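Q: Please design a sequence for this.
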């Protein structure tokens, strides 16, 4: 006899059936994750594995999105091996890329327009990463490129590389962004100095510095919003 209700389906199939009958938007994070995990092990369903993984990430999908296949495997969750970890990381990266495409299509009018995407991309990185958004005349994002990666104590930014990339992208304005792994959102003196240097150098090429956004797990800080671009 065909199983018609969700409760009658095997535990690994219930999230899939719920998606079909109620729509993807009605699934919880753990149910969506269970579909990616696909199947559990004896005594532990895919949904149980999903909840266990979310617990390790403190129910933070941004944190999970920044985990590598290796780091997921290192959690030693029984039943969650490399194959499932690959499916999870691939799906989360697709979601991030979709968000990035939306950002590229939209006109950037404020720091909030871009801050959440930057947080998802950088906030949970354990080392400091400095990236630049390149914008066209319509204030739409052309590209985002990482220009420097450093240790947890800081990173070295080469202004020449930033300007070269801006010219190659035919950008008329740029937004600087980097993460603070410590969680502290306040800019350091070094952050302020490099911001001013990049602003002055970019001006020689008629390129405007629109903002410098610092992100962490606690939120974001905008130089423009705080009146620190001069």
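A: Design:
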């Amino acid at each position: 006899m065909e199983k018609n209700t969700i409760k009658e389906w095997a535990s690994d199939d219930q999230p899939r059936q719920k998606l079909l009958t109620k729509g993807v938007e009605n699934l919880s994070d753990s149910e969506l994750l269970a579909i990616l995990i696909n199947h559990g092990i004896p005594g532990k369903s895919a949904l149980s594995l999903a909840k266990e993984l979310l617990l390790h990430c403190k129910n933070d999908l941004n944190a999970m999105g920044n985990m590598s296949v290796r780091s997921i495997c290192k959690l030693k969750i029984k039943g969650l091996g490399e194959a499932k970890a690959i499916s999870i990381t691939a799906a989360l990266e697709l979601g991030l890329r979709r968000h990035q495409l939306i950002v590229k299509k939209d006109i950037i009018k404020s720091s909030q327009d871009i801050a959440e995407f930057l947080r998802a991309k950088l906030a949970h990185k354990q080392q400091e990463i400095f990236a630049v958004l390149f914008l066209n005349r319509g204030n739409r994002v052309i590209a985002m490129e990482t220009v420097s990666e450093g240790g947890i104590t800081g990173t070295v930014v080469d202004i020449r590389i930033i300007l070269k990339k801006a010219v190659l992208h035919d950008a008329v304005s740029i937004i600087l962004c980097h993460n603070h792994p410590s969680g502290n959102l306040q800019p350091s003196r070094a952050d302020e100095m490099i911001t001013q240097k990049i602003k002055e150098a970019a001006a020689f090429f008629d390129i405007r510095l629109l903002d410098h956004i610092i992100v962490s797990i606690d939120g974001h800080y905008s130089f423009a919003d705080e009146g620190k671009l001069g």
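Q: Thanks. Anything notable?
A: The chain has two domains: 9-98, 108-222. Confidence is low (pLDDT under 50) at residues 1-6.
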